[in-house]
Design brief:
This protein is an alpha/beta fold and 308 residues long. The chain folds into two domains: 176 residues, FAD/NAD(P)-binding domain, CATH 3.50.50.60; 117 residues, FAD/NAD(P)-binding domain, CATH 3.50.50.60. 23% of the residues lie in helices and 29% in strands. It is built from six helices and 19 strands. α1 packs parallel to α2, α1 packs parallel to α6 and α4 runs parallel beside α5. The chain starts with a strand and ends in a 7-residue tail after the last helix.
């Protein structure tokens, strides 16, 4: 394969939006994703997408399918199952599943993942750590006591969903106030089944085959609470490891971009949740992906000088 105009890393909403615009503008592009199907975080979001103008989707999965279908109708394609092992931002090179690719521009649209707490007993499975599970696995905890960690929209929504099926929901947050929207805070405060513990941190999850209890530390010290499941909704962490040391990032690893989605490397752009100060919304990701490709096309037309 010869040199491309664009390699898109990631097929979430930002990457798929960028791929659609690249097809419309007739850029030679390729989209790579490590997953088995396009969609990124949308595939793990069963909630309706209501805040993206012109899009009213009953779930993230449905929207992922619509975006991919749009790209396919234009003649575009996502190369799934492609694990990227090396990115050279300066040279515009990507190594994926043993294949070396080179392009005039790269777009980092790798998104983010649920942040882990790195505590004893935490594992990547429902009820033992990061991620929402009330909609997908809530039936496993019906009538039981569960613990939800976090203070944002995801945590409070998870607590509310569990309060509909569980006898008791413990909601702990390390801060002194919630960051969540008022329409989540009000029902949480009013729910008789949700116990809120502020200035409280999760220290460990106990139990081998099944969760038995959790150790928490609050204003009164360390205590042990018996729970059947622990759900950590403590924010997200960016998938930017392969670019560390090559471009400017903030202290948490989010990629710093300008208003055109350019990074500190002339060939590299970034869009979506991997970016610093991102709105963390589908609408923002779609817009950023499109804006990035439009700027690339302008630079190609103007024959911008790039490093060799």
């Amino acid at each position: 394969m010869g040199e491309l105009d664009l390699i898109i890393l990631g097929a979430g909403p930002a990457g798929l939006s960028a791929a659609v615009v690249a097809e419309v503008l007739k850029l030679r592009s390729i989209t790579l994703d490590a997953g088995n199907e396009p969609g990124g975080q949308l595939l793990r979001n069963p909630a309706a997408i209501r805040d993206c103008a012109g899009i009213d989707s009953p779930s993230g999965m449905t929207l992922a399918s619509k975006l991919h279908e749009h790209l396919t109708r234009l003649g575009g394609e996502v190369k799934t199952g492609r694990r990227v092992t090396r990115v050279d931002a300066a040279r515009g090179e990507v190594e994926a599943s043993g294949e070396l690719l080179r392009a005039r521009f790269l777009l980092l649209a790798t998104g983010a993942r649920a942040r882990t707490l790195n505590i004893p007993g935490e594992r990547d499975e429902p009820g033992r750590g990061p991620g929402q599970a009330a909609r997908s696995h809530g039936h496993l905890f019906q009538g039981k006591t569960v613990l939800v960690v976090g203070g944002g929209d995801l945590a409070l929504e998870e607590a509310l969903l569990f309060s509909e099926i569980c006898d008791r929901v413990l909601l702990i947050h390390r801060g002194s106030r919630f960051r969540a929207r008022p329409d989540f805070r009000a029902p949480v405060e009013a729910s008789p089944r949700i116990e809120v513990h502020m200035n409280t941190a999760l220290l460990a999850i106990e139990g081998e085959d099944k969760v038995k209890a959790a150790l928490i530390e609050g204003p009164r010290g360390v205590s042990r609470v018996e729970v059947a499941g622990v759900f950590v909704c403590a924010g997200i962490a960016p998938h930017s490891e392969l670019l560390r040391g090559q471009i400017d990032m903030d202290p948490l690893g989010y990629v710093i971009t300008d208003v055109r989605q350019r990074t500190s490397a002339p060939r590299l752009y970034a869009a979506g949740d991997v970016c610093a100060h991102s709105a963390w919304s589908v609408a923002a990701a779609i817009g950023q992906g499109a804006a990035a490709v439009k700027d690339m096309e302008r630079r190609i037309c103007m024959a911008d000088e790039l490093p060799p």
